Write the structure tokens for this entry.
Amino acid sequence: MTRTMSGGTAALRAAVSGPVHVVGDAGFDDARRLWNAAIDRRPSAIVECLSAADVAAAIGFARREGWEIAVRGGAHSIPGYSSCDGGLVIDLRRMNRVVVDPGTRRARVQGGAQLRDVDAATQAHGLAVPTGLISHTGIGGLTLGGGMGWLSRMGGLTIDNLVSADVVLADGRAVRAAEDENADLFWALRGGGGNFGVVTEFEFQLLEVGPIVQFGLFFWEESLGREALRLMRDVVADLPRSMNAVPAAGLTAPPAPFVPAEHQGKPGYALLLTGFGDAAEHQQVTGRIRETLPPTFDVVTPMPYTALQQLIDEPNAWGSHAYDKSGYFAELTDEVIDVLADHAPGKSSPLSVLLFYRLDEAYCETGEDVTAFGGERTPRYIGFFIGLSPTAEMLPAERQWIRTLWEALRPHMMSAGTYVNALEGTDIGEVVTAYGGKYQRLAAVKAEYDPDNVFHRNINIPASGSPTP
Ligand SMILES: Cc1cc2nc3c(=O)[nH]c(=O)nc-3n(C[C@H](O)[C@H](O)[C@H](O)COP(=O)(O)OP(=O)(O)OC[C@H]3O[C@@H](n4cnc5c(N)ncnc54)[C@H](O)[C@@H]3O)c2cc1C
């Protein structure tokens, strides 16, 4: 599929209103950069689209010229699916407008917006879309894979709040997908990734959130790992729906002002606790944690929701070298805790961490067949095992650490696959397992909307349903 530039880019420049970057242009290297510094792809051209018409023109150009296409939202795909070597990147970053209607509690969000754009616009009205934990993630890739974060217990996945999507298809047609229009496409977009077209605009229903929410971080030193993780499990089991918690293992205490100097840079275990309801509710859980196993240090404070959404942006900044794996767990059993406590100290990079998001309550209230999301809607944790190193040289050790840990945890994972937004996607067997019984239906929708697999720079579902060799 990959082609080098054949007829120059004058035709492309003439066809679109946004800037086009080609090899040798000033700014080309900056434009081709992805969040994961370990991925270094060199497309022939990058078009920064300004409209759905630009997207259609870019697709048409690439197809006529026989170029591979990659679609770039927030560029957070860890395997680097939002770029390609020698093809065309359809870059949506300038399509980041968010328009909120507080009357209907709906937001229209362009396909290249970042989570922080969505949060800023919705919070101006005390509203929010449940999304992810890092505000520079793209709404595009996050939504199309599912989307989970602080509000998953209260509001479900991002896709559970999607009302409609405007999509440019492989043949250049612009269509709307919703329950009452192209319903099969709407189903597939909610979990099936970028396989079916380029989403130029999402429409979300909104929840009332904040603007002030509660946050707590409780940190225990490494020697207290097993007790701390057991306490976190017990706390999470009793949380009201308006609260959420992320247990973290192998977390290095940051050089932040709230961390006592003697603990900065030390690895340990932490519980991140959020509250979106009554402050007293949060204080009660805080009290229980402090009484049961006094943390090495903690910080508990109200803060704006937008600040919560940006709280861990910095350790996840652009420019790290990343590798990740994930898995679903019915519970943080003693066996899981033993594996975590045995392996967490083995990391080499202070940025690496093992995080567990809780999925229950609203997450479980969307019917199994309503969306294409592969994870079953039963209460669970998803573990994100994130290797992040400041240099390329350190990444192999982090990758090996994650793989060894993941193998040790594997017998304790739920049998069904994992979250496609944390999948490498190179093993088709893993992709089929991630979607389970929904895989063949997704392949049928693919056959209808993108039979030639124009959109394959993603966790790919070929129209045939069979892996491409
Ligand atoms: C630091 C970090 C933190 C994360 N935190 C969370 C989290 O808290 N919760 C969570 O659920 N996930 C999280 N993720 C995973 C994240 O959801 C995925 O990496 C997601 O694919 C990122 O979307 P993006 O638009 O930024 O990425 P991109 O790399 O731009 O795109 C990813 C894929 O989606 C496609 N795509 C993007 N936009 C569109 C569009 N508009 N139309 C069609 N296709 C499109 C791309 O072609 C590509 O295949 C995190 C990832 C990172 C790196």
